[in-house]
Amino acid sequence: MSSPKYKRVLLKISGEVLGGKNGGLDYDAINSVATQVADAAKTGVDLALVVGGGNIIRGTEAQNFGVARTTADYMGMLATVINSLALQAVLEERYNLQTRVQSAIKVSSVAEDFIRRRAIRHLEKKRIVIFAAGTGNPYFSTDTAAVLRAIEIQADLMIKATKVDGVYDKDPKKYADAKRFESISFRNVLEKRLQVMDSTAIALCMDNNLPIMVLNIFEQGHIVDAIMGKPVGTLVHS
Ligand code: UDP
Fold first, then answer.
1. Nearest ligand 1 atom, CA 135
2. How confident is residue 1, by pLDDT bands cut at 50, 70 and 90?
3. Three-class SS state of 112
4. What is the reported pLDDT for 20?
5. Going by CA atoms, what residue is nearest to atom 6 of ligand 1?
6. What ipTM is given for this predicted complex?
7. 107 CA to middle of ligand 1, Å?
8. Fewer CB atoms inside 10 Å of the end CB: C or N, the chain?
9. Binding residues for UMP, per the UniProt record (predicted)?
10. In the structure, what pLDDT confidence band is assigned to residue 95 with cuts at 50, 70 and 90?
11. Does residue 166 line the site of ligand 1, with CB under 6 A?
C-alpha cells in the first residue's frame, strides 16, 4: 500500500450513525463503523476519534421537555461516553485494536481523563484514542470538540463522517439537482450559509488552518481514500 497523505487524522463520528432508526445503539451500525476505523488504522496514520451523542440525547432536545440546558448538555456529554465505550469494546474485541478512551469530564472508573500529552503518547504508540464527553463544557457541540482536539493533537486532517457524502449547494434530500462540492473554502461555506458544522467549530478551523473532509461513513473505503489523499466527499479548507 502507498503511504498516506496525512500523518495524524481525527475522525469525528456523529452519534446518528451509531444509532438505529429510533436512536439508541445499533450494534450492526457500530460494527460497520468499527470496520471502517480498523481499515483506517491499517493505513498507518495516527488515528484519534471523537464520537457524538445525538443518537442518545441532544441537549437542545432535552431542554424542550423541561430539563435545564446545562443539565441537558451534561446528559449529552455522558451519552458520548456511552457511545465511546461501545465503539472501544467492538474495536478491541472484534478487531483486536489497541484503544484508549479519554474523557473531558471525570468518569475515571471507565475512562482516562483527557491529558493532551498522554493522548499524543498513545497515538505515537499507534493506539486509537477516543475522545469522549465533548469539550467538557455545556453550550458546545461535539463538532467543536473534534476541531479542538484535532488542533490540540496537531492533526493535519479532520474527517467528519456522517450519513451524507459531502457538502451540497442545497439539501440533496429535497432537491434532485443539488450539486456536491469537491472542495470549498470556509469563507464560502459561511457566505453561502452551508450547514457543515456550527459556527464555533467553523471559526476554530479557519483560525487554525485545519482542513475538514466531509464524507459518508457507510460508503465503503471512503475514509481510507480520504486518508490516502484521494478525492472523496468534500474537502473544506482555508
Ligand atoms: N455537548 C456539550 N458540550 C460539548 C459536546 C457535546 O454540551 O462539548 C452535548 C450537547 O448537548 C450535544 C450533545 O452533547 O447536543 C451530543 O453531542 P452532539 O449533538 O454534538 O452529537 P452528534 O450530533 O455529533 O451526534
1. 8
2. low
3. strand
4. 79
5. 141
6. 0.97
7. 17
8. N
9. 53, 73, 135-142
10. very high
11. no
Question: Which amino acid appears at position 143 of this protein?
Answer: D
Number of H helices, E strands in the chain: 8, 9
**Strand segments (E) across the chain:** 8-13, 46-51, 99-103, 112-113, 128-132, 157-162, 183-185, 212-216, 234-237
162 DSSP β-pair partners: 216
211 CA distance to ligand 1 centroid (A)? 21
With the CA atoms of 187, 51, 49 and 20 taken in that order, what torsion angle do they form, in degrees rounded to the nearest 10?
A: -110
Point out which residues pair with 50 in neighbouring strands: 12, 131
Helix (H, G, I), strand (E, B) or coil at 211: coil
Here the cell at position 209 is 488552518
- Written as nine digits, the cell of 216 is 459518508
Q: What is the pLDDT of residue 21?
A: 81
To the question of whether residue 12 is assigned a binding role by annotation, the answer is: yes
Domains annotated for the chain, with CATH where assigned, are 8-237 (3.40.1160.10)
**What is the C-alpha to C-alpha distance for residues 174 and 50, in angstroms, rounded to an integer?**
29
pLDDT in tens, 194-225: 989 999 999 999 999 999 999 999 999 999 99
Q: How far apart are the first and last CA of the chain?
A: 29
For residues 170 and 195, give the distance between their C-alpha atoms in angstroms, rounded to a whole number: 9
Nearest alpha-carbon partner for 134 in 41, 22, 15: 15
Cα separation, 211 vs 150, whole angstroms = 10
19: Cβ below 6 Å to ligand 1?
Answer: no
Q: Which residues on adjacent β-strands are paired with residue 180?
A: 168
